[in-house]
Design a protein that fits this description.
232 residues; 7 helices; alpha/beta
């Protein structure tokens, strides 16, 4: 039986994530060494749009959730400069190891603090961060987990702090490719562990003020959303 979630805002069926956290961790540990070959070229254009939307600045304290092999963390560390600080959390120990090596080569280890863990429990103080970046990560969480992840993001952001999420989306043109994507996720979750979601709706439901939204096309629709924590 395939579990689905009925979105109250749009009436669309959102597939559930059927893999356990331990299965997801094992999968990313397995592919860490070849992840760039599998995803770097296809994800890069969307990542560039999302980074421009985040607009990292010198002296800021920024977090990336689900940093993979660390290319964005390196970019963020360069952007915040020696007076800033960048944090990263990822579920995969092997991704952490890959990223540590990249940061060492780039001479950026002093600006970045890495954690191996689950974004449902972010290990950062309340109101301590200026911005959060999440690219092709939120859709990896099961439907009930998404509000918990975003609640943690809101907790650690300072009032007025911003979050940028890029995610495979149920918005935009729902064509044959997207239907095939969802079918593969539902029937072969070990091969395709994410599914399209409503990113803007998820951020709005958690109380973020939406500042900007773009729907781009990779080979599936991608939502790129910037929100902010109220209370500046």
């Amino acid at each position: 039986m395939i579990a689905t979630h009925r979105s109250s805002a749009s009436g669309s069926d959102i597939a559930r994530v059927l893999q356990t956290k331990s299965e997801t961790k094992a999968f990313y540990n397995k592919i860490a060494g070849v992840y760039d070959l599998l995803a770097e070229r296809s994800e890069e254009p969307m990542r560039e749009v999302a980074l421009e939307m985040l607009a990292p600045a010198p002296g800021e304290r920024l977090l990336e959730v689900g940093f993979g092999t660390g290319h964005v963390l390196a970019r963020l560390a360069q952007a915040v400069g020696p007076t800033g600080k960048v944090f990263g959390i990822d579920l995969s120990e092997n991704m952490v190891a890959q990223t540590q090596e990249l940061l060492r080569k780039e001479g950026l280890t002093d600006r970045v603090s890495l954690a191996c863990g689950d974004a449902e429990n972010l290990p950062y103080p309340d109101d301590s961060l200026d911005g959060i970046f999440m690219c092709f990560t939120l859709e990896l969480f099961d439907t009930p987990e998404i509000p918990r992840v975003l609640a943690q993001c809101q907790r650690v952001l300072r009032p007025g702090g911003r979050i940028v999420v890029a995610a495979v989306s149920k918005e935009g043109t729902q064509g044959l490719v997207l239907r095939a994507f969802e079918w593969t996720h539902r029937h072969f979750p070990n091969l395709l562990d994410c599914r399209p979601i409503h990113a803007r709706q998820a951020l709005e439901a958690q109380g973020f003020s939406i500042e900007q939204t773009r729907v781009e096309s990779m080979w599936v629709p991608v939502e790129i959303v910037r929100g902010s924590k109220p209370g500046r």
